[in-house]
Amino acid sequence: MESVVISVRIKSAVKRKLEEEGIDVQNEVRMFLNQRASQLELKEAIDRMEEIIRTKSKPSKRGFAVRSIREDRDAAH
What we know:
The chain has 77 residues and is mainly alpha-helical. The protein has three helices and no strands.
């Protein structure tokens, strides 16, 4: 997988505080950006699925839910 270099400027006090707490700043930034990209991909997939549902699905016939629930209850006894 191809990679690129990015540069982020933060206050030295922030970097110092993070390092004092044992946090690897580069790794934290890398993990955050990877996670954010995954979230965006997931959102895009959900949006595509919702569009498919909106355009391809038909509403159920009137009374379908009531009949289905009644059938399930009757089958359980």
